Amino acid sequence: MTENGMRYTSTPSVDQSAGPNEADGFNAANVGESATESVYANDRVLAYDPFVKNGLAEDSMTNLVLPYIHSAREGVERLDKLVAEYGSAEGNEVQFNDQDEVWYMEIATGHHWVAVRIPDDCYAVATNQIAIEQIDFNDPDNYMWSDGIREFVDAHQLNPDNDQWNFRHIFGTNTKLDHHYNTPRVWFAQRYLSPVAAADQTPESPDMPFIRKPERKIAVEDILYLLKSHFNETKYDPLGDGSEHDKKVYRPIALSGQPSLTSCRCATTSSRNRRPSNGSNSVCRPSAPTRRSSPTPTTPTSPTGSSRPR
Question: 249-258: per-residue pLDDT in tens?
Answer without folding.
Answer: 999 888 764 3
